[in-house]
Write a structure and sequence with these properties.
This protein has helices at 11-23, 30-43, 54-64, 81-88, 107-112, 133-143, 194-203, 242-274, 305-314, 330-337, 347-352, 367-379; strands at residues 47-51, 71-75, 92-96, 118-121, 146-150, 158-159, 162-163, 170-174, 187-191, 216-219, 222-225, 280-281, 289-290, 296-300, 356-359. By secondary structure, it is of the alpha/beta class. The chain has a single domain (11-379), classed as Aspartate Aminotransferase, domain 2.
Length: 382
């Protein structure tokens, strides 16, 4: 069975972990700081804060912007973490429709759904295609809203020459096992504000204002450790570890030229092969963006999406559907039914999700496997 996703890990990552083991510092420590600094340089922000997951990142960044009791504009066509993070903060997601071609938020629909209760916008760069951030930021400026990019799919993607994660007030990235680069689990927040940096570092470390590494002061071969710190607020235990950072430092070096380039190679082969297949719509790349491919989400236009998926499975090819709209899950249906959140009007989402099918895509997918997938897809009687 050809998997849908597979991480690309090797000897370099193992050697980096070995170095961390030998240091004796495997928790939140100096390699986390090294990775944060390297990632901030790569993205182009002043600060980056490593967290245990992108879910945690969204949770604490929303907390830092004080969204409690407000509404947050967000797509339903996303991984559930985007909207769980809003609920963690006692705020309410207001679901926005998506564009049929990019599957990113529809800016016109978003603008219509702004109310006096709206505090923030979470645009999701679906599948690695950047959202129209100029339009998003104009709406945010008009209504004094916070913009937090959900860039879980989009590490390395660019919009008008700037990388995702630099386009709003903050960005949240995922390094989960199946993402374009991985640390096993983990995530990163990116932003420029100095005060926000101080607060997020406390929030990710149970509200403590000085983490362990900042209390260990090296002087030559001697390390002097201070036990003193203050708990300044109710924080969470969601920091990154040096083991994760050790992997991330190597993955970041590989990101452009291998991890993203490898996925693009696969996507371009699919695009060329399926461009003239009548019952398939291939992913798009709009002017002014440089997309990356976290997934390869084609649209099955003949009403046979599920039949096609089973056909692929029978021929040894895994597939995915990203996503069942969040508001259709039982938990969110209950919130809608009891009046906690609004019943969404998202007609494009409701139609397009039934067409989405994701083919295998990862950097080390072999050319012969790509050809087999293409030949198999074309044999399906659409």
């Amino acid at each position: 069975m050809i998997p849908l996703f597979r991480p690309s890990l090797g000897e370099e990552e193992l050697n980096s972990i070995k170095k961390t083991f030998e240091s004796g510092w495997v928790g939140l420590g100096p390699r986390t700081k090294e990775f944060e600094d390297a990632f901030a340089r790569y993205i182009g922000t002043k600060h980056a804060v490593g967290v245990a997951s992108a879910t945690d990142g969204l949770h604490i960044i929303l907390k830092s912007f004080g969204v409690e009791g407000s509404e947050v504009l967000t797509p339903s066509l996303t991984f559930i973490s985007t909207n769980h993070a809003i609920l963690y903060n006692n705020a309410k997601p207001v679901f926005v429709d998506v564009e049929e071609d990019t599957l990113c938020v529809d800016v016109g629909d978003l603008n219509e759904k702004v109310t006096s209760k709206t505090k923030a916008i979470i645009p999701v760069h679906y599948g690695g295609h950047p959202v129209d951030m100029n339009a998003i930021n104009e709406i945010a400026e008009d209504h004094n809203l916070v913009v937090i990019e959900d860039a879980a799919h989009a590490v390395g993607a660019e919009y008008n020459g700037k990388k995702t994660g630099t386009l709003g007030d903050a960005g949240s990235f995922s390094f989960q096992a199946i993402k374009n680069m991985t640390t096993g689990e983990g995530g990163m927040l990116t932003f420029d504000d100095d005060a926000l940096d101080q607060r997020l570092r406390a929030l990710r470390w149970v509200g403590i204002n000085k983490d362990t590494v900042s209390r260990a002061m090296s002087q030559g071969k001697e390390t002097r450790y201070s036990w003193e710190y203050d708990v300044v607020e109710l924080g969470y235990k969601c920091h990154m570890s040096d083991i994760q950072a050790a992997i991330g430092l190597i993955q970041l070096k590989k990101l452009d030229n291998h991890l993203n380039a490898g996925r693009t190679r696969v996507a371009e082969a699919y695009n060329k092969a399926f461009r003239d297949v009548e019952w398939i719509s291939i992913p798009v790349e709009k002017p002014g963006v440089k997309r990356v491919y976290w997934n390869y989400a084609l649209k099955v236009e003949n009403g046979k999406r599920d039949e096609f998926g089973e056909y692929l499975r029978e021929h040894g090819i895994s597939y995915g559907v990203h996503y069942l709209p969040n508001h259709l899950h039982p938990f969110y249906q209950e919130l809608i039914n009891n009046g906690t959140i609004k019943e969404p009007h998202v007609p494009v989402t409701m139609e397009v999700w039934k067409k989405i099918l994701c083919l295998p895509i990862y950097a080390d997918l072999k050319a012969e496997e790509v050809n087999y997938i293409i030949e198999t897809v074309k044999r399906f009687e659409g």
